[in-house]
Amino acid sequence: MQNINVGLLGFGTIGTGVVKVFQQNHDLLVSRLGTGIELVRIADLDTQSDRGVQLPPGLLTDDAQGLLNDPQIQIVIELIGGYEPARTFVLQAIRNGKHVVTANKALLAKHGEEIFRAAEEAGVEVMFEASVGGGIPVISAIKENLGANHFSALYGILNGTCNYILSQMDEEGIDFDEVLIEAQRRGYAEADPTFDIEGIDTAHKLALLCSLCFGTKVDFDKVYTEGIRKLTALDIQYARDFGYKLKLLAIGKRDGDRIEARVHPTMIPEDYPLSSINGVFNSIRLVGDFSGPVMLSGYGAGMAATASAVMGDVLAVARNLRTDVSTRVPALGCPQSVLSSFSIKPMDQLVTHYYLRFTVKDQPGVLAKIAGVLGKYRISIESMVQPHRHEAEAVPIVFMTHEAEERNVIAALAEIDQLDVVQEETLLIRIEENLE
What is the pLDDT of residue 394? Predict the structure, then answer.
């Protein structure tokens, strides 16, 4: 067989990593594939910046259309990111009969149904291992190694920026804004960290994981998403006092013909395996009916780990090409025609335990007023922390509740926050007691 030719769209950080894999591990790629494989063209608007790698003359171009229309290129790697022009380029590559490898979780979370359907009709592959969990092989595990399982739940720490910030807040006892500045200085957070710290990046990944695990179409816009900006070192300390760790958790659960799909700060028992995932590491815990709980962990981002996942997909496609096999494993693990259309369970129907931090005037009768409203909405208190009296105008009071329905909790807090003794909006954090 002739060489398998690959084209790369996007020559940023991850694209540079892909080039390094081709250059440093080329002999390994050839030996594992059993035939030649070459990166024959790279397209990027910036053809001048030094990426720290040497390229043969003519390899780098600003002509994306030339790459997409080159009949010699069989696999296109899309690393542009975002929605457009990535969507247009991916669909064009598919129409031209090319297989696609991408790390673009935002694109697939928003336009995956259109892209996967087009690929199925064209008989080409779309692979996206690098879109979730960086170098962690979770997508291939769900589709293949664990493919005989019904999944009841998945839990994920899927954003290294947030996990680093929360870990530092826990270890150093300092607040969010200070840690964010340090994370940006060290390159763990973007100059504009909104997608990370508001949970959007994690929600993109959760939408893909829910589709894979539960065999359903997921409307990304209906995934409940809440970030970590409001959390303080005090909340992390209280979590520790109660025996919990605080994580930005992606949660997907099967509930009959509905699914839960939610991203929010979550307290989990400190002796659970996910609690030990710190720094920029990611982890995904899958619960299958025959496999039981399976947990995968590793670097969730970064040039090397993500490039490793991209090239794993490239090798998988190349092996299929070498043996003349087409779309052996569908993009979501099953054909588009058999995907279900489960609805997403509304958040107000969630039943769980809650951490509630009130900021109140330090005066007699405050507890009775708050407890009275909680009782009115059938919310019972499991435990409480109240600091010793001091001269501050406002003090925190923390309640841990028994299981309650979210709609009742939200209604109670709306009423409590109107009390004259309450100084700030109450902070709510959900608790997951059983990750099985």
Answer: 82
